[in-house]
Design a protein that fits this description.
Elements (H helix, E strand, L loop, with lengths): L5 H18 L8 H18 L3 H13 L6
Length: 71
């Protein structure tokens, strides 16, 4: 699992929504070049908010190899 707590997930979602509204929501008045640049900036910023999948995968494998598997 990428997130240890629901609070971490809530914070991440809130941060992503702030980025979205700041960079994507305000694009209607921008020209094509500015829109493209805003999308690029938004993708980079949102990616920075998300966990590294390699770390999450490693943590998931370590969790299951320790006998902590539920189910």
């Amino acid at each position: 699992m990428f997130y240890e707590t629901c609070k971490e997930l809530d914070i991440t979602v809130e941060n992503i929504m702030v980025i979205y509204h700041r960079l994507i929501g305000a694009m209607k008045n921008l020209g094509p070049k500015e829109r493209f640049n805003s999308w690029k900036e938004a993708v980079k910023a949102i990616s920075a908010e998300l966990p590294d999948p390699r770390k999450a995968s490693f943590n998931h494998m370590a969790h299951h190899s320790n006998g902590d598997e539920q189910g």
